[in-house]
Amino acid sequence: MPGEDDPIWIHRGVSDPAYFVPPTAEPPVTPAVRRTMMSNRGRDTGPELALRSLLHRSGLRFRVDHPLPFDRRRRADIVFTRVGLHVFVDGCFWHGCPEHFVLPKTRTEFWSQKIETNRVRDRDTDARLQALGLTSLRIWEHITPVEAAALVAQTYRGCLDADPARHSVG
Known about the structure:
The chain is α+β, with helices and mostly antiparallel strands. It has 5 helices and 4 strands, in the order αααβββαβα. The chain has helices at 7-10, 31-38, 46-57, 108-131, 145-162; strands spanning 63-68, 71-80, 85-90, 135-140. The chain has a 4-stranded mixed beta sheet, with helices on both faces. A hairpin with a 2-residue loop joins strand 1 (63-68) and strand 2 (71-80). The N and C termini lie far apart (56 Å).
C-alpha cells in the first residue's frame, strides 16, 4: 500500500512512546488476578447505579457516561448539561481514597504510579472544567447513596441559583 514504507507514518501515534512496555518473560499477574481486573467495570458500577436511581426518583434528569468538552476520551459519570455540573463517582482503590486505599503488596511501584497518575488526571480534569466555568463534583464510592444524592441535589440547586438567567426555560 502507498505510504507503508514512509517512516513518518510509522511514528505517528496517539500514545506516548513511554506507554509501550516490552513484554516480560513472566506475566505480571496471575491469570486469576487478570480475570478479576478485567471484570472491573468502567461504568454502571453499583455505587453509580444506586446514586442515579435516587437522583432520577427525585425528579432530576441527567446524562450518563458523558464525554468531557475538552477531551472526548475522558468521561463524567453523571452530567447535568443545563447547569454544567459534572459528577464523578470515584472508586476508593482506583482513585486513592485517603480513608480506604491500601497499596497492594505486589507490584507496588506499578500500582503507586498508576494511582498517582489517576489522581493527577482527576485534578487536571477538575481544573479544566473550572476554567470552562463548569462545576465538578467528586463523590467517593464509600459515601452512602442517600448522602451522595443529597450532595448532588444541593450542588445542582447551587448551580441553578448561581446563574438563574442561563437556566431559564422559554
